[in-house]
Amino acid sequence: MTYQLKLDIFEGPLDLLLHLIKEQKMEIHDIPVAEISRQYLKYMELMTDLNLEVAGEYLVMAAELTRLKSKMLLPSHGGDEGGEEGTDPRAELARRLMEYQRYKSAAGDLRQLEYERQQLFSRGSEIQVEEGDEEVIIDATVFDLFSAFKQVLSQRTFKEDFEIKITTLSVSEHIKQVLDILNEHESVTFESLFAENQSKQEVIVTFLALLELMRMALIRVQQGSQFETIRVYPTADRETQKEALKDYIESEVEPELNPETL
After folding, report:
1. Average per-residue pLDDT for the chain
2. Which of the four CATH numbers 1.10.238.10, 1.10.10.580, 3.90.960.10, 3.30.1660.10 does domain 136-262 have?
3. Which of 112, 213, 239, 256 lies at a CB distance of 3.0 to 4.6 Å from 219, suitable for a disulfide?
4. Residue 72 has what pLDDT?
5. How many CB atoms lie within 10 A of CB 212?
6. Would you call 240 helix, strand, or coil by DSSP?
7. Mean pLDDT, residues 204-230 taken together
8. How far apart are CA 212 and CA 185, in angstroms?
9. What pLDDT is recorded for position 77?
């Protein structure tokens, strides 16, 4: 039986495009459509390989990028400056990305104000504040995790095993394993969570467990700045974890994963 994971932590195709633009150090107003399309489809393939349910809007954006790529390949016939033929086919996409980026920036500013407000305390007992520079960290996105996961896969060599085995892997069991590790440490690096995984299938199921933990708000993932080392932090006590995992198992009726289906 295959296991398909549907998460509500994915934000949308524009988030993925902005992530790729930053990752590849591209200019929004001069997007190399062929390259961005190739990178976008690679992420789509990775989601499919992980049995993640891809929303229709991702497929619509893939079709839009293909259309833009085709238009960019067609010879330009000139035309009036204000006419349709004289416009850059990428202009509308760039406009949408810029507008979406402004909304995300405004939302980030509001989150920062909320965080600063939470640091204010009413008069009471004296609070000891340690001196020194405060480390600035940002929340890592799901796509930051995907980039880190691709790097984990590229750095690992998996032994080809031609012996036929019947092996089942459980996402809920890997969720327990990740929580056990996090409960022993204040935080761990993203890469270290895969240290004990011996096969590609185990790496994939561990990653799926992390996505589920994000969805259940039992962990947070942060980094110093985008594309730097990602650290994973627990956000709930053991009792809360236990209850959340119990509810997850009861609601999902999770099938075991057969590596042959991954």
Report:
1. 76
2. 1.10.10.580
3. 213
4. 81
5. 24
6. helix
7. 86
8. 20
9. 56
Token pair 């980039």 is found at 147
Please give the pLDDT value at position 232: 92
> Which run of H or E residues covers position 246?
helix 238-252
Strand pairing report for 230-234 and 138-139? unpaired
CA distances from 26 to 20, 96, 103 (A): 8, 16, 20
Kindly report the pTM of this predicted structure. 0.62
For 152, the 3-state DSSP assignment is helix
Q: Which token pair is 97?
A: 């990305």
- The structural domains of the chain, with segments of one domain joined by +, span 1-119, 136-262
Does the pLDDT value for residue 100 go beyond 80? Answer: yes
- The pLDDT assigned to 83 comes to 42
pLDDT band at 166 (very low <50, low <70, confident <90, very high): very low
- Tokens at 99, concatenated: 């507008």
Q: How far is CA 176 from CA 25, 46, 134, in A?
A: 38, 24, 32
Distance CA 177, CA 174 (A): 5
